[in-house]
Design a protein that fits this description.
alpha/beta, Rossmann fold, GMP Synthetase, Chain A, domain 3, 3 domains, five-stranded antiparallel β-sheet, 21 helices, globular
Length: 620
């Protein structure tokens, strides 16, 4: 039986009577309590709520002294740090509007956001090289001449250059004088901010077209702060590790929950250092995107399967049984056997112990969001005894509108609606959402707003799904991503892609086939797993580009696709594939900052490769 709509009773005061700065003031009443932990000069250091408040006060006064007026836009281009949070809260306390920019954004993307938002000031953290890109300050300097509204670029660290750049230390010196002269001004400004006032514009990473500036309010985030506590997503005693980009709404929910509950927030040094940071700081909650869970799972499988002798044989036997277990779970049937019970004791218990050590030993739960989590991977963590709460939402719904609860995890669904939020399924299967989480609209884009936001408050998500009898939501695909083959069959590409990525050999996948006679897929491989596979066959490869040319690797990828195809109807099978010469990345444009494949971009960039897969005789 499919329920047509679902709403959980609202939390008292869920619409929110506070803004984010008032939440900070509330937490800072216990000024000595630890608010955050960050690494400085090679050492982890705790920071109190009193310190955070004082830093926000000084910086807010400095912004006002710099001429920032209510409603002005101030952008932040930085990695995820405590200083990012302080800047954001100071902007709110100046009654201005925050414009986050992803730390991975290109110079052209930065220019677009700065000009579209008409930002007057820009915070930049430093000029350290970032992956394959130049430092953020260099990227800004490359386009600053084309951003006329930006009066000043304020640099956290390192030397500045020219009249339009200013060191954060110099700005703070101004703020200290201003704060000393008018000590009461901060709270007066904070109290003037109403729940319906705009907190900021989050620019959607956009799998197609230019990004849109989503207008989110203080009330949106106050609501999220209240509901995350109400459903037990986090609690005041937790230590939460944050590595997610603060230009993403998922990270902003963590920030709102931190301000609402006052737990200790730990800032990871970087994504690359996440694992050692977890071991060093021992958090109890880790919010993460599915890619993190995929990597953990694939590393366990790859390392265990490669173990020598009896240990490797035992591991491979146990995971063959796990495959049967996960498939039975997916079909809603029970799976138990003496062998599987033995595998749990001999193998999975040890896997849990190893992961506990790597995760710091205090992990209470994980929160998964930003993209769909493969049920098979969810079953793996569940089997080990970990709680993974998968949620669902969009930037336009200030992140979660649905989420599994710690006491009720229904794998394969994203749980029930948050308290006070309504969810229903339209006649064409589209998920509609209404409630305190929904955005005001798109900045300077009333036509796009009207396309997705009805006058009675219902927001059209663009996702396809269904509600079960318990009100749990199951996402089946993006409305615009659904492939309609030349034979008129509908195929959900994300399901195929997520299944492919449960195999350690596969890094990324993009399924294609709209209005075509059959489905094809662009594959990128895990360099580590592919190199190990070839090395076992006595083949040494010097570069990633050479990997895909090896027939042994193509055969291994073909085996993976054959396994996936075995579970699909004939029209949903992948007929041909191509191994790409480089992995997909944000820097080269194939992935959004939340690590989702940009379908339109990839389809255009690799059109020649895709067309070649359809040349000659049609696939059977």
């Amino acid at each position: 039986m499919r329920a047509e709509s679902q709403m959980v009773a609202p939390v008292a005061g869920a619409a929110g009577t506070k803004n984010l700065v008032e939440l900070l003031l509330h937490q800072a009443r216990d000024a000595s309590k630890v608010a955050a932990t960050q690494k400085k000069n090679g050492q982890w250091q705790d920071v109190s709520w009193g310190y955070v408040l004082q830093e926000v006060k000084v910086l807010s006064a400095a912004l006002v002294a710099q001429g920032v007026k209510p409603g002005d836009r101030v952008a932040i281009f930085s990695a995820t740090t405590l200083q990012w949070m302080i800047c954001d809260l100071a902007i709110s306390a100046a009654h201005a509007i925050t414009v986050p920019i992803y730390s991975s954004n290109t110079p052209d993307e930065c220019r677009y956001i700065l000009n579209h938002s008409e930002s007057t000031l820009l915070f930049v953290d430093n000029d350290e090289k970032d992956a394959k890109q130049a430092g953020r300050l260099t990227r800004i300097r490359q386009r600053l001449g084309e951003c006329p509204t930006v009066r000043k670029v304020i640099v956290f660290e390192g030397p500045v250059s020219g009249d339009r750049e200013m060191a954060l230390a110099d700005l703070l010196a101004q703020g200290q004088a201003e704060e000393k002269a008018q000590p009461q001004a901060f709270e007066a400004r904070a109290q003037a901010v109403k729940p319906d006032d705009t907190w900021g514009f989050i620019y959607t990473s956009g799998t197609t077209g230019d990004p849109k500036g989503v207008i989110l309010t203080h009330g949106n985030w106050a609501y999220q702060a209240e509901t995350t506590r109400a459903i037990g997503l986090m609690d005041p005693t937790d230590s939460v590790m944050l590595f997610l980009p603060l230009a993403h709404s998922f990270a902003q929910v963590v920030k709102a929950a931190w301000l609402g509950m006052g737990f200790r927030l730990i800032f990871a040094e970087s994504v690359e250092k996440l694992l050692p940071n977890l071991m060093e700081t021992k958090p109890s909650v880790l919010p993460a995107v599915p890619r993190v869970f995929e990597k953990v799972y694939n590393n366990v499988v790859a390392n265990g399967s490669a173990a020598p002798g009896m240990k490797g044989k035992l591991f491979r036997w146990a995971f063959r049984l796990f495959d049967e277990y996960a498939e039975a779970k997916r079909k809603g049937t029970e799976f138990s056997s003496l062998g599987f019970s033995l595998a749990q004791k001999l193998v999975f218990k040890k896997v849990r112990k190893t992961l506990d050590e790597k995760l710091g030993g205090h992990m209470r739960l994980f929160v998964s969001g930003g993209a769909p989590l493969s049920p098979k991977i969810a079953y793996f963590f569940d089997l080990l005894g970990y709680k993974v709460l998968e949620g669902y939402g969009l930037t336009e719904t200030s992140a979660p509108c649905n989420c599994n609860r710690p006491e009720k995890i229904k794998i394969g669904t994203v749980g029930q609606a948050l308290p006070g939020t309504e969810v229903k399924i339209a006649a064409d299967g589209e998920i509609l959402v209404r409630g305190p989480c929904v955005m005001k609209g798109y900045y300077k884009n009333p036509s796009a707003t009207a396309e997705v936001l009805e006058q009675d408050g219902w927001f059209h998500t663009g996702d396809i799904g269904e509600l079960d009898a318990e009100g749990c939501l199951r996402i089946t695909d993006r409305k615009k991503d659904i492939i309609v083959t030349a034979g008129g069959k509908n195929v959900a590409p994300q399901n195929l892609e997520n299944t492919l990525k449960t195999y350690p050999l596969i890094s990324q996948a993009m399924v294609y086939g709209d209005k075509r006679p059959y489905l094809v897929v662009l594959i990128t491989v895990s360099e580590e797993a592919a190199s190990k596979l070839l090395a076992e066959k006595g083949i040494q490869v010097g570069s990633y580009a050479e990997l895909g040319k090896k027939p042994e690797l193509r055969a291994a990828v073909q085996d993976v696709i054959a396994h996936v195809n075995a579970e699909q109807p004939p029209y949903g099978t992948l007929k041909k594939f191509e191994i790409m010469e480089a992995d997909f990345s944000q820097e080269t444009g194939e992935l959004t900052p939340s690590l989702k494949v940009k379908r339109k971009f990839c389809s255009q960039k690799y059109a020649a490769i895709i067309d070649k897969l359809y040349e000659g005789k049609s696939a059977d």
